[in-house]
Records
---
Amino acid sequence: MSAGNEAEERIVPMRLQRFLARAGVASRRGSENLMTAGRVTVNGVVVTELGSKVDPLVDEVAVDGKVVRLSDGHVYLMLNKPRGYLTTMTDPYGRACVASIVPADSYPGLFPVGRLDTDTTGLLLFTTNGDLAHHLLHPSTHVWKHYVALVRGVPTAAQLERLRKGVPLDDGMSAPAEVRLLSPDEEAAVPVIPEGMPYGHAVVGLSIHEGKKHQVKRMLAAVGHEVVRLHRDEFGPLVLSGVQPGCWRLLSDDERRALESA
């Protein structure tokens, strides 16, 4: 290989938080938090400035004293999150976290892409690929997520149409959603129906591409229907399948390719 080709293939200096994300340490935002907390060193020197750059082929980067290197391959898995678990890898108060039900020890740097509320169940994507996570969560990407909600009362056609056009929330208008009533007999409805369909309730299927906090619950509340149970069964091209509640599986090659192209 000629010297010119070596130069072309050489990884150019990159921002430290991007390096950490690509190495699977954390998401880009999480990597920034590690830096500002003084937990990251470059060549033995603590670096807290977010604009700092490193050369992966020359500089030695460490987090909490452990050397970090770029990985040739990343891990992707889906968890069928049960109720009662925080979407975080650690909790200072000792509450139950999703970290306890995924193979975090086997795959260093594994972290959840986005979050589900403690009482929300369903598909939660984990990866060691910080760059991909950043793109999937960026507002410009418009990755659709499908939720199934058990609500009090039965939404009218007019209320469903309001959701399709977007509803006012305390932090601005929501984007239009795709929404329909689900029959209790439909397979998608099953995860949110506890033991038989409660009287005076309905099951709603709703797809959104935003990521506002508690968005589905707030959107349905805005049209007069409290969410009793909430479940996510789709995230972008991924469909929750072959995973029992509280269990996980690695993504197939086809799922990985679909996710990376999303």
---
Amino acid sequence: MGCRMGARQGHRPSAKARRKRGSALGLAATAAVVASVMAAVMVPGSALAQNVTYSEFKFGILAHDVHFLGGKESGVDINPEVIFQSPVADAWVAQLPWYLGWMVQPRPTLGAVFNTAGFTNQYYLGATWTWQLARDVLRPGDGINFGIFFGPGFNDGQKIARQPDRKSLGSHVLFREAFELGYLITPGYEISVYLDHVSNAGLLRQNQSLNEVGARIGVRF
């Protein structure tokens, strides 16, 4: 009897295990998308992938700590971001082999994520790499862009959660990664879907990540 009950219980993972599984599946799916895009970017002599190097202002509305990726916190996030022109000149990049040229024009980035429900706010800086994967898709002058951000993120959340609806982040300084897939309506305006992830990469005992998903508008300047 005890064995049967144990077996039945073994088929019912805890809420914590389900959250971890959801987070792992979500990140695995993201990694698969990123790998596919990077494979296209790195094709020798590709006429598609071109470095995006200009300055932009982004404004996003994001779902905070989404539950299908193991979330606890809630609310809507406001995400302003400024991406500055890459300091690396096109003429210098043109002299490099194809397998280096795609990655040497990062754009300095500053941004914030303000939660409207009183949960964790974030501030970040780092670098954004963006490539135009296709152009003149629906009409002349439009295009498809893909971007990756990496850098440190600073937060006002809880290192060790004191309420059941808060995350134990482990630190006020975390690693931040973000992925964006955008449609360039015109050379000056873009709409996009956006996903970000912050955690301490398991360096601390407490490491409950935050993940946001949403949409953004970009304006070139």
---
Amino acid sequence: MASGNDFEGLVARFYEPLYKFAFSLTREEADACDLTQQTFYVWAVKGHQLRDSTKVKTWLFTTLHRQFLETRRRLTRFPQQDLESAELELPVLTPELAGRLDSATTLRALAQVDDVYQAPVALFYLEGCAYKEISEILEVPLGTVKSRISRGIGQLQKILARDLAVSGRRSPSKP
């Protein structure tokens, strides 16, 4: 790239118009900021591949639009849900039933959770990873990690409640 297209110069020149475009798409200030930042991140990683320096503006706006569409597709496939709103969908797991859990039972139940939720739940609870680490490992947004953990826990609780209700009819000392 020509020296006039250094990264800081590009940010200074295109941040405002890219942000305005992003805001027109998202109608949310935070989402527009994220989208603009993501566009510059993609530029930092892939911008060197652009052969014609006169196409920088087009490349940036196209990249921003593609990032927006990708985000929308991801939200459609994996809608985010706050933990508080998902709480109403969770089964009730009484302390009596929870007291009968052991790690082997929990791991067997985790294996029955949908694949898309298994990894985030396992990374969070078994490996002690932070949300941000999980986001980086799975290459998904932070909100998606939180949503998947919430839904995974919901499935896990349903499976455990069902299994414990069935095993509650047997003696606790028998497998």
